[in-house]
Amino acid sequence: MMLLQPVVEKLRDMRLYGMLLSMEEQAESSQYRKLSFEERLGFLVDREWSMRQDKRLKKRIRNARFKDKAQVEDLDFSAQRGLDRSQILYLAQGEWITKHLNTIISGPTGTGKTYLACALGDAACRHGFTALYYQMPKLLRELYASHRDGSYDKALNRLTKANLIILDDWLIDGMSFIQTKDMLEILDDRYNKASTILATQLPVSNWHTRFEDPTLADAIMDRVVHNAYRIELKGESMRKKQKPLTQSGH
Predict the structure, then answer these.
(1) Neighbouring residues of 96: CB distance < 8 A, sequence distance ≥ 6
(2) Taking the domain 65-240, which CATH number applies?
């Protein structure tokens, strides 16, 4: 059965590429002729829906700009890493994002904090949430520049409306009064409205000393710590394990 050219052109004009692909499959296979009109229509709609969902997912992941291309199913759950499989699988379902809670991932350098954060971000995207990944030094530089060029409100809006933001290398450097004030405004706007993952080398007990202003520090701690899941990674650096052998074999 040949496809009607006017129908094909209209589908292309409306960008219904999934339906067009499904129509071509039905035209080339005799098995579809045994199906009712409703069943064949169902295949057309399902293919269009699937293609659009896949396109939206790819866009969410692309816009998130994750540092690592990571997925939960690729995580190393060996005992020495300190990962609770049931906790991670729960977080991967995204219910905590629906409840506007946070997650704090801590541990020594090289233990996989960034990879885990990106894996949870990827899982969030697959459940329909929008996400943004930032390394803190870069974010602070962008906020500083936005104050100078007048785009701060635009930057704040982008950070506020994302369902999930990942702040990697959290408090790797101390924060000035202005930086602390900016972060408080961001986290305050997101409080009880969206979720944040903080990946850091510092235990929560050491956070307070990294802020220049103790009053603002209290306010930030109040908005991110008390409603957060905590994951503490352990073990030696994953980078050491991945280091190639030397020529001598040592």
Answers:
(1) 90, 103, 195, 229
(2) 3.40.50.300
